[in-house]
Amino acid sequence: MLAVLGVISKVIGMFYRLPLTNILGAEGMGLYQFIFPIYSLILAVGCGGMPAAISKYISELTANGDTALAKRALKIIIISLAIFGVFAALALFVLRDGIAALQGNPKTALSYAAIAPAVFFSGLIACYRGYFQGMHNMFPSGISQIIEQIVKVTLGLIFAALFVKNGVEYGVMGAILGVSLSEAVALMYLALRFSFVVENRNEGALQAEAAADIAVMQKTVPTAQILRSIYTVALPVTLGSLVLPFSQVLDSFLVVNLLEARGMAEVNATSLYGVFNGPVGSLLNMPTVITISLAASLLPRIAACNSNHTCVDGVVDKSVATYLLTIIPCTVVFIFAPKPILYLLYSRGLTDSEIDIASKILHIEGVNLLFLGGIQLTSAMMQGVGKARTPVFNLLIGASVKVTATASLIPIMGIYGAAVANVLFYAITFLLDCVCATKLFGKFFYFKKQAKPLLCALGFAAVFSLYFVLRLYVNDIVALLTAGVAAAATLLILVLKTKCILLN
């Protein structure tokens, strides 16, 4: 459920980037992308590990029947993150000019002011999503994502179009303001969902039991112990969630400055950074919503199995099968046919030369879908059994390689050096995670169990490779659409014939 709703959300977000790119242009998208590394870093510091930690804690409590304590824990952690959110939002607003100056582009200061309220809202959203996922209810998280995207698209585009007349930085600010308002609306939905559905469900039948549970729990489980239980898991996960946004922050400082050191003008360097993190980043992020959703669902189930001392193989097998059936086809499409995809989506907002550059970057980074999806699944597995520090160390090793490679390769390869550095980052982290997960769980990828989904995915790749033949006779976009439809139909038929998604 979370994956399906997440895909819908990502599709909405991807199509949001199309008109936004047309409104703001490459420079505007570069400014837009400057904002999110800092924003993501602040969120990672305050609440990066909260959904996973709350999900694990709630899942363990409900597995033992402690539903009253689960609700109480949510309310306690909401207060904790609300306090952090207020201070973080104020700090971002006050320091906006200094941050913009350090990034080398003062035009972003307005946008940092516009996104400051989202810091407060996002922390509380993380609490509610973690609670619902811990209850094995993925629907509220998915619906909140769709609400978030719809509001962002509607208000962001309206404000961007209205404000861009005063300058590109004002257009970017308008788009960012839409983000803050979308977070506020998503938070309202989750809070109302919790209040009117969870709190009031079967109230008459459960009132006496809940009152007794609360009385016992309040006496036996102090608030400090609840916070300690959650933050013990959250802190290492937070450290892990810091690695990616921190590396993106370094990119926002390194990439543009290194490109300028090669003799490129500031506007051109910013535009290339916008291409690197904008259209390409959006396309690469869309398929990963599937593995993010799988990981969000996998973690509480692993935690519940671990708490009850039951086998986790069946849960892991289904997640790996879905990963193979979805991520391999997406990887194949991005590696085989990046240029027609980008031209079809972004030809109005990007020049032909920018599309050429973006297609080469996407061709290089397409393989990251496999690595990143594997990282998300193996990290969820390790977090579910209380080994949250292990994926953190692996990410740090990968990130150190990425920073070194970025600084070394951009002077030689230009913007493509940053793409190669990203591939090294994810590949090394993925390999380390696989080794560590194998030590904890034994061999979790069994070829006999995963042969059918793997062969179905490879069947998709074989049919889609007809793209290279078709493009000799028709234009690239027609070849892409024809090969894509044929490959998708083949994949669907193979999945239905083999029933590989219905693993026992």
Quick tags:
504 residues, mainly alpha, 20 helices, 87% helix, globular
Characterise the protein shown here.
This protein is mainly alpha-helical. The chain has 20 helices and no strands. The chain has helices at 2-47, 50-63, 67-94, 96-102, 109-134, 139-163, 168-198, 203-220, 223-261, 266-277, 279-308, 313-336, 338-346, 352-365, 368-384, 389-413, 415-441, 447-464, 467-470, 476-498. Helix 1 (2-47) packs across helix 6. It is globular.
Biggest pleated-sheet summary: none
> What portion of residues is helical?
over 70%
What low-confidence regions span 5 or more consecutive residues with pLDDT below 50? 202-219
Structural category is mainly alpha
Gross morphology: globular
Strand residues, percent:
under 5%
Q: What order do the SSEs take from the amino end to the carboxyl end, as H and E?
A: HHHHHHHHHHHHHHHHHHHH
Rg to the nearest angstrom? 23 Å
Distance between the termini: 19 Å
Mean pLDDT: 80
Please describe the topology of this protein.
Blueprint: H1 2-47, H2 50-63, H3 67-94, H4 96-102, H5 109-134, H6 139-163, H7 168-198, H8 203-220, H9 223-261, H10 266-277, H11 279-308, H12 313-336, H13 338-346, H14 352-365, H15 368-384, H16 389-413, H17 415-441, H18 447-464, H19 467-470, H20 476-498
Helix pairs in contact: 1-5, 1-6, 1-7, 1-9, 1-10, 1-11, 2-3, 2-5, 2-9, 2-11, 3-5, 3-8, 4-5, 5-7, 6-7, 9-10, 9-16, 10-11, 11-12, 11-14, 11-15, 12-15, 12-18, 13-14, 14-17, 15-17, 16-17, 18-20
